[in-house]
């Protein structure tokens, strides 16, 4: 892989250490000068802010060093290689993958329109139970949750394809895993026509446990999407 290239690694380490790459300055790699912090804002030393800066610095350094190495490889007549399991993609303005981001945003809009239509149908066109004012359809709440998880998943998908960083990738994969896991639960409940709470819990509990474990694994152990490196 390209990230094993000594020249790439040297470029990345230099970028992290100095916050510069040749004549360019990396925005998120702010290096203190004269033993004074470069950013004196009150939040500059908060752990979450520092971690966010580190993630963005790493992402920017990876991208610029990758582009630099690919340009050098092209001049030598060599083909592109993967970096950290991904093919090199040149940004369009600030967007990492503009077409994928646009399609994800369009899908999000379609999901929202579908959920809104479902909500309006239930609220204003179908009769409600006189004693509770709830819908007669017993899967209403489950479909609302499914719609919210779907919109959340496509939202982070659009963000991830716009800006590929460690934290956007984790949020994208975590939200996708949550949506897929819940969709499986809903499919089983609806296909089996399970209406009582005990049966629903028996079906949902093991799947929720597996999905939760998988999300924790992706976030805190190894971010492995199962994509081969070659």
Can you walk me through this structure?
Keywords: Golgi apparatus, GPI-anchor biosynthesis, Membrane, Transmembrane, Transmembrane helix. The chain crosses the membrane at residues 99-121, 141-159, 171-189, 201-220. It is a multi-pass membrane protein. Involved in the lipid remodeling steps of GPI-anchor maturation. The protein has 230 residues and is mainly α. The protein has 2 domains: 2-75, no CATH class; 98-220. Helix content is 63%, strand content 2%. It has 6 helices and 2 strands; from the N terminus they run H-E-E-H-H-H-H-H. It has helices spanning 6-18, 47-75, 98-125, 140-162, 166-192, 197-220, and strands at 20-21, 24-25. A two-stranded antiparallel sheet has the order 1-2. Helix 1 runs antiparallel to helix 2, helix 4 runs antiparallel to helix 5 and helix 5 (166-192) packs antiparallel against helix 6. It is elongated and about 75 Å long. It starts with 5 loop residues before the first helix and ends in a 10-residue tail after the last helix.
List segments where confidence is low: pLDDT < 50 over at least 5 consecutive residues: 33-38, 40-44
Sheet with most strands: strand arrangement: 1-2
Termini separation comes to: 8 Å
Please provide the count of β strands.
Answer: 2
Helix content: 55-70%
How many domains would you count in the coordinates?
Answer: 2
The structural class is mainly alpha
* Overall geometry: elongated
Could you give a short account of the major beta sheet?
A: 2 strands, antiparallel
Query: What fraction of the residues are assigned to beta strands by DSSP?
Result: under 5%
Radius of gyration: 23 Å
Q: Output the helix-strand order.
A: HEEHHHHH
What is the residue-mean pLDDT, rounded to a whole number? 82
Family: Belongs to the PGAP3 family.
Organism: Aegilops tauschii subsp. strangulata
Protein name: Post-GPI attachment to proteins factor 3
Subcellular location: Golgi apparatus membrane
